[in-house]
Amino acid sequence: MILLSEEQAMLRDMAKNWTADRAPVAALRAIRGGGPGFDPALYADMAEMGWPAILVPESAGGVGLDLVSFGLIVEELGRNLVASPLLASAAGAASAFLLGDEGARRSPWLPKLAAGTSVGALAVDDGNHHHPGRLAATARAAGGGFVIDGRKRAVTEGGAADLLLVAALLDDGAPALFACPADAAGVEVAPLHRIDSRGAADISFTGVRLPADSLLGSGESYVDSVLDRVRALLAAEMLGGAAQAFDTTLDYLKTRVQFDRPIGSFQALQHRMADLYAEIVLARAAVYRALGTLDSGGPDPARQVSMAKAMAGDAFRAMARQMIQLHGGIGMTEEHDAGLYLKRAHVLDHQFGNAAFHRGRYARLLGI
Amino acid sequence: MTDGQEFRQVARDWIERNFPPSLKGGQFVIRHSREELAAIPADERLWKQRMGEKGWSTPTWPVAYGGGGLSLQQADILAEEMARAGAFNPIGGLGIMMLGPTLLEYGTEEQKRQHIPPIVRGELEWCQGFSEPGAGSDLAALRTRCDDMGDHFLVNGQKIWTSFAHLADWCFCLVRTDTSVKQQGITFLLIDMRTPGIDVRPIELINGVSHFCEVFLTDVRVPKANLVGRVNHGWEVAKRLLQHERSGLSARRNVANVEQGLAALARRYVGQDDEGRIRDGDLRARIVRLLMRQEAYRATLAQRGAELEAGLPGSVPMAALKNLGAGVAQELNELAVEILGVAGTGEAGAGFADDELEITSGWLYSKCLSIYGGSHEIQNNILAKRELGLPGA
Asked: Which among B288, B297, B378 is the top mutation candidate for probing chain A, defined by the most A β-carbons within 10 Å of its own β-carbon?
């Protein structure tokens, strides 16, 4: 934003219609309990609409739209908890190539990611917490290429990906991203069964030999710029989740009758909703400010991404908690969607830095 | 060069030529007494006069009534250039924030010609005669009586929480013209505060000073030409004016001048660690949360501004903005006074620096931000009803 172009508004409406039509929350229920963590047919739909190619420039056969446009789509997907590798692959993996060195942008992997025929996953975190500044995985230079050793924790879409973008330290200690085929010798993928039913895996790399051109880019600012795109889009996804959790709860308050009247007529609940509404308003401004700054190349993009991720994370978690509380007993049941929002909010918060991480980063960037 | 760049240069040059360097880094100061008003320094008077004549005190108001006639975009550029030069708008008050925009919309041509130019130049102070002892959050319960005497109105009653009534030249006032209905029996009048029968008594607040007053009206004669809108249609005008109030209050900077310097204040009073971070980790974390909220709040204001500029309906309701703005400002003041430690416990006199006393007083005063202009709860009622469509009790 701040103001949507006609093209952006169309894109948002298209995403809204598509999710309503093809990917209601019931679609998430259908993939629970096994499989890759998403419905390949839905991702094929997205590929047909060109979404995996959004960030790839037209000159490279992509669609060449900006992050605000991508954010609008992701926000709509977030509303219905749509399961797909779009963010991991088309934002995360694709950006590792697009923001990487000259050769990376000509990689044969990129057209496959853009077409949705390949799925890429960012394998960054070594442990339970996000610390991209202190990686443990290493990439030793050897025989004109590299040897990767390390363990990556809870890689989003790590089970379904055929390409892993591995973060490891070069011999000089600089962090770098490598393109590693998931079937390379020495790669072991152990899928995880998580509360949000989405795909993730622990992945170990033991003496994995990669050619020289697998190095896509290096340096803290490169890795951070790739991560910041994903973080900002994760914030957009959380914003969508918060907004839908709010709307669903609001509908319930208007229809649930106790003491002979809709419970939404009680002022205590009205005020709670009004306060939550204001929090979502604030988070929305933060999210689109961050995406817009990444697009425009304006000042302090990293700080604004951290603001967006922290605030959208707080808003989604607060809203999901209240979604259950305001629904009462029915909100605690497996049958109701409220639990799905709470679980997703929790998992998303921990992807590439939770709210606390991003508050710390925001403070560091402000020098306080 | 784009229009924007061109205007930026124009604004920059004008500020450079007209802004007295002695005022650099200052800000709009609210005066609480006639003595303070009389003691305004010469340079500030000059700056006020120049800004008023240029119309840039109200940059977007029509030139025909003395305003600046700028677009919202140009007004933004002007604000940026003012900030860059360390300059500020020396003219404020309720005339600019509330009455002016309302009068431009609802006033007669004569009312606009009479009242808008002095507001632009900051020559006359206005006060708001809305709240009454029995009509606070439930504003439409107001009872100040207005009788039609043929060639004039006669007003009797009492107003309370009337900001700056003791300094005001004029009052925009809600009065009751029909007791058989509630909202539909209210009329909006402009009252000259020098009219016989008006008695003003200041109210002392928890921070000692205050701009709030009680106003007693006894057989006050008001000319018919001072009616805004129609008799019994004042609620409509008042609601519009309250939107301007919410917008003005939400956009207003906080009371104490600590906004820029919260981190600096913390370093000074609490100290920093070897890495230059505020020493108290808990305090630091809360400062970060607040600064983040403040930055997001400003992004929200910018979003709304851009929408209005483009002629779109605002996607962010004013009631939400008012609550968010008040919350951010109150938290800012809470942190500031906490940072001071015991230095933030002074009421007056020796042992406390002036800026410490100002922060303490500002903190106490900031408690009213979520009460005046429609309390937090009233804003939430408005949100629940209008925005969320929740049913009435």
From this structure: B288
